[in-house]
Amino acid sequence: MPGFRKRFCGLRRHWLELYLLLLIAEKPSYGYELSTKLKDFGIMISGIGQMGNLYRILSQLEAEGFVKTDWDTQESGPARKIYIITDIGLLFLRDAMSSVIEMEKTTEKFVERYEKLNKKD
Amino acid sequence: MPGFRKRFCGLRRHWLELYLLLLIAEKPSYGYELSTKLKDFGIMISGIGQMGNLYRILSQLEAEGFVKTDWDTQESGPARKIYIITDIGLLFLRDAMSSVIEMEKTTEKFVERYEKLNKKD
DNA sequence: GTCATATATATGTATTTTGTATATATTATA
DNA sequence: TATAATATATACAAAATACATATATATGAC
User: Which residues 17-76 on chain A approach chain B with CB closer than 8 angstroms?
Assistant: First the structure.
């Protein structure tokens, strides 16, 4: 499996992409809803302009072929741009899992060592 | 406790800062050595220019008063710029721990949900 | 009816961070 | 006397982020 992109040491925007891809893989969804679903992970999209950045990331995921889109005009309210995962998107997500698991370990170690440091004092 | 800076949703550079501060808090150290100690956390500083970026982050930590420095010319080889944690640095680190713990939970949830997703298929 | 709010998507831009490249100097060892 | 390992540092283009704003549809309060 090639590297797709030169990313993933791994962080921020790169994480957000993964969370979005996972949510979309679970069930097709749209920007506004995704921003609320991110709360499940403890990620808050609030603050000025945050939504704008989210939409931009979604657009780029589409441009890269990780998701495709479909307008939903059935529901009441403004039209929704529904994002649907692609095979490439699923592949990318699977490929990225090793980074996520590494991050998990890294973070655990960090907490452990910080606690050990404080015990000494 | 105020926010120190407008960062920390939390990622990349911001993480690296914390790992560096923890390592320095454990024991004063210098750039080159820190780059090797980061491996304990699974973080590799290799590739072109990576060291340069590391030094830049260390300089900024110093500019912000989180660490202070001292040149070590005792050892053989090129002089070493020893970084020592400050009280503000320790405070910043403590303040940041909540973000780290959040990230830990977030990552755990991500792995769980990815595995659940794959069971369905 | 119109005002505020929630829902929904999107673009512009200055600042910050990153990736990549490079410069420089000291010591050990082959 | 090369070469590699040790050690720090700056320059710059590209990418990402924070912050600001524009636009439109529907619902509920008044």
Answer: 18-19, 22, 25-26, 40-44
